[in-house]
Amino acid sequence: MNKRVVLLTTAIALALSAGGALASGTADVTRATLDNGLRVVIVRDALAPVVTTEMNYLAGSDEVPAGFPGTAHAVEHMMFRGSPGLSKDQLAAIAANMGGAFNADTTQGVTQYYFVAPSQDLNVALHVQSLRMRGVDMDAAAWAKERGAIEQEVSRDLSNPSYKFYEQLQARLFDGTPYAHTPLGTRASFDKTTAAMLKQFHDRWYVPNNAILVIAGDVDPVATLATVKAEFGDIARKALPARPTFAFKPVQAKTIKLPTDSPYGSVYLGYRMPGTQSKDYATAMVLGSALASQRAALFGMGMDGTALYGTFGANLMPQAGFGMAVGIFPRGGNPQPILARMQAILAQAASKGIDPALVEAAKRKAIAELEFKKNSVDGLANAWSGALAFQGLESPDAMKQAIEAVTPVSVDALARATFDPAHAVTAILTPESSGKPIAGKGFGGAESFASSPDKPVELPAWAAQAFARLAVPPSTLKPTSYTLPNGLKLIVQPESISDTVELFGRVKTNQDLQSGKGEEGVAEVLDGLFPFGSTGLNRLQLQQALDGISATESAGTSFSLAVPSAHFAEGLRLLADNELHPAMPAQAFAVVQHQVAGIVAGQLQSPEFLTQLGLGKALLPANDPQLRHATPQNVMALTLDKVKSYYAKTFRPDMTTIVIVGKVDPAKARQLVEQAFGDWKADGARPDVDYAAVPANRPGQFNAPDASASQDSVDMAQTLDVTRNDPTRFALNLGDQVLGGGFYASRLYHDLRDTRGLVYNVGTSFDLDAHRGTYTVSFGADPDKVAAASAIVVHDLKQMQQAPVTETELKRAKGILLRQIPLGESSFGAIGGQLLNLSIEGKPLDAMTIAGQHYLKLSAKDVQQAYAKHIRPDGFVIAVKGPAPKG
Question: Structural domain of residue 110, as residue ranges?
């Protein structure tokens, strides 16, 4: 399951009530505690007709039996295998019908199960959560199948050098406590785990008096609370087992050295810090934010050339956590000077304290972030779950109060107590070369399997009724679109859910088609220069001005701004100054040039780059511009004048779109954008930045060795004669939901994971451009499973061509795509990204509604014909990154 980071909490005050009575407090928040102990929070958010339900069980890897570190994780997996009254196939079909945003996450002290769905499906989501609290099907046969999938997840994570470091770091920092192991688990422990053990864990901990249910979205709080009582009120509370104790030992300094498959190296300096339920949590959060500031010394390492990049990050669990200074060095570079600089920076923080101005800026930013959490239905639910389940607070507003109470004195005291070199864990991850790609010799495709579809899934009546009727949901978006006199496109979507504004912008460029011969890498160097400020404000002055209005800004080909609405005009002025008048100082150019050259040198030898380059060469004609890539020699041959020339040629208002979402009047937004960007002019005709069409590729296969990986990452790709404006894309997208969408309900998940345990996950994607397209199937598998998994993919695709999908599958696929329309409008980020992409591609802003109308009309025969005409099951290039496949 995916690992979601618990976001900072949003500031909404409310009062606690007991016994199931409605709470007093704000009009948008309802709280109750049922008689059986289930705590319920309902937060109304009318951003979109979407709801998020998050069931937080206060049990995770902390509570597992000794010697079985992955028990909680395994229970999380088995929760998707069905419950009494709801089979796994029914559960998968229900989740798919709701749009597919249905998953879970196991952490140290909390396991969370969530739906993000159209509001009309709230009752279905709650009924599923209720059934799963009551019981789960934990039979041995189901566990045997799921164990194969979870062991593939273990193999995937252990193939990641950063995860190996994380595992060793936790063991060192938290020796003798439950935090000494991660929630993932091990193959050895899963081999010894029984279904009976998993059922026992569920029955002990998955009880109402050990759970917090958070519901956020466009719902009726009174009716929702009544439904919650009806669904959960008769589930009996139970006496909870004793919780584990935490007796932290002093950390002994240690250095960890590991190879990495990344194109660059990493230096980490880790220290134990207070956890989320500590009285010092807010202080720790402010300390970390101040150290990570773009005005602070760690970030400065990347600006003066000491490192490629520097920052500070933290991973805080309920009882404790860790903070880490991070420095990135180029392949072949010496990490020791960076380590010494990081040690000196933290030693100074411990001895002399943190700049009070950075502390105050960090506080303002953290408080502003609370308001920004309202801009996402999912984020709002996360905020409440974070406050109650992870931080042990009564409401998110308590975190705001705690942040406000932080002082520079308390931050300095925590820095002194934390940054003691005698208790530091140091890690150095050094890039390791991949071997050269090796042409494959027959792996993938030899076997033949009987496969999907099984008989259609018959939904229970309560779910069948909810999904009986398909209709295109009405969009909540009513954007106002302008084209300014200089050709810049402006789209404004007013939203009043918070006192914030978010801006999303993009200049449509293509380095492969717009840079001169031998100038590959010029776009990367240019992007690296924007953080150095403008001609009017150097980087520190610019960041100080942004900090003063609690704004976050980035400039470049893609640019953005997030700012409280009261300061939108000033934030927009600062963004435009950075975007239109970048400083590009000569000293900074020399630094960025060497940094980009170092990164490129590492990329050229990394397994990931060699895999993608191998795919490109196999899919595209020789000398295709998409095959262009930078070399260290190209980058070092660049001059500042060439970079400035590229900027002047490619950054044009008539190739630029800006989308503004938030509390702003469209006419006022246009006025401010014209003031900030109106003097920007373009010279000459608009350039063509779209790649030309290409012929179909020949099939092939190759292996890019990755010495750090135990699992193979497999991409099966082919060129496609379908473009982003081809009407055929609708039938292909619909078929793609049958084949790879909807989690367990898809054919590939069923055949690769559910019935055989060959993979942990499998993904399918269409990448359609103006004149060319590609189709890719991706999965991770052990080397001895690659051939079988690849053969199943080919078999399932041929089946899509040979027979129409079932009516059940067709209806479910349509339901997924139709319900994804409101899900795509449930956050400022989703709204802004959608409108920006549509504008850049020249599509109407109501294209999602138009697509929904197409999906409704399509038949199973249409899908079959599209796959038969455009997909070539025997035409894949199969790229394997990792050990050589076996068999």
Answer: 34-232
